[in-house]
Amino acid sequence: MNEKLRQAYELAKEQYAAIGVDTEKAMEQLKQIKVSLHCWQGDDINGFLFQDNALTGGIQVTGNYPGKATNIKELRQDIEKALSCIPGKHKLSLHAIYADTEEKIDLDEIEPKHFESWVNWAKAQGLGLDFNPTCFSHPMADTGFTISSADEKVREFWIEHCKRSRRIGDYFGRELGQKCVTNYWFPDGYKDIPIDREAPRHRMMTALDEVFSEPMDPQYNLDAVESKVFGIGAESYTVGSNEFCLGYAVSRGKAYCLDAGHFHPTEVISDKIPSVLLYTKELLLHVSRPVRWDSDHVVIFDDELNAIAQSLVRGGLLERTHIGLDFFDASINRVAAWVIGTRNLLKALLRALLEPTGTLKQLELDGDYTSRLALTEEYKTYPFGAVWDYYCAQMGVPSGTAWFDEIRQYEADVLRKR
Ligand code: RNT
Ligand code: ZN
Asked: Which residues are catalytic?
């Protein structure tokens, strides 16, 4: 290891020890945290099951940076490259449209066997897998409604798709020996003001009950429902709203999925985490970055990201939270996007773990808000960067900006040649 890096770490270690923080313990805790990387950053949510399905569902990927993955082999190669720059053992979140099969199948026909090659690859990579039914970018979703459609045929199609998705989640969990989180998100909604706000929600509730009717071992598959406030083209009404999904998760013993971009612009999920976890056993996060809307920008090291990490660490909620990523930027190098977002998330978690939380909590209980403010402000400039660099080096991945040289090289050698 680079001697300067080690010296910087030793100094940081002392400085943290002086405020009662054990840097070794923090790094050990960080090592245990798995982040679920979203496969869809690599190919702009195209998937490989259908040839010409346009992206629908009120989400959008913008940009035309060269080198996107055009098949499963390329996507895996890109993910492997990204993972080589990210410390730790993690998970990959797949969407149904990433099925690996030569068969001409539709979404209501997917089976575990269509994902077998992903399982084999995940095993070889030491990765866990999560899953998502793809309830968009499909002719059956063209009316803007899927599982809550008033058309029974449409509803049945999506119910079948979700049931099968759940079985794939169970299959992933069993094969990989770690729980798969299967996340259900539906774009269903109206562009303009509806008359009936109740019936679609009623239909969604009944449809979900049907989807989850098959008994399944929660050890292998965990179901999560993701809410949203609005989507492009569905600005006036979203069936799967916050109240709908939270209520559903609480009443049915499911996990709730909080996406950072799915609330009004001044609302933050960092403050929702501890409330939700009072009422649900587990939580899924889609860590994303909304810029004016649910724009899914690459996660940066901003205040809200740090607040999310603090919520999890300070509340002792890491064990019940599954941390997933959800962003898609096609205007920059897509592999770099993964690395930037994931490293930032891990960095924020490390920084939160390097806080003397017990001391600060006591000050708060004592009503000493002056000390609380004074100390938290000083701790902000404590040398967590030195601990991060050391952690990366220990974990065998590049520290500092070194990872970027590798991605640049990869861009020249691989991405630009596609
Ligand atoms: C959409 C949701 C959803 C998707 C992915 C692709 O607003 O955030 O999670 O981004 O399933
Ligand atoms: Zn999401």
From this structure: 185, 226, 228, 259, 262, 286, 294, 296, 326
Q: Give dist(CA 4, CA 398) in Å, integer.
A: 15
H helices present in 68-198, as ranges:
72-83, 116-125, 152-176
* Whole-structure pTM value: 0.98
Nearest CA to ligand 1 atom 7: 59
Amino acid at 273: I
* CATH number of this structure's domain 33-355: 3.20.20.150
128 - beta bridge partners?
A: 91
Q: How far is the CA of 352 from the centre of ligand 2 (A)?
A: 23
Q: Is residue 328 in contact with ligand 1, taking CB distance under 6 Å?
A: no
Structure tokens at 97: 């449209």
Kindly calculate the radius of gyration of the chain based on its CA atoms and give it in whole angstroms: 22
Residue 68 in contact with ligand 1 by CB distance below 6 A: no
Residues 360-412 pLDDT 10s: 999 999 999 999 999 999 999 999 999 999 999 999 999 999 999 999 999 99
Q: Is 259 in the pocket of ligand 1 (CB under 6 A)?
A: yes
Each domain of the chain, given as residue ranges in start order, spans: 33-355
pLDDT tens per residue across span 358-367 = 999 999 999 9
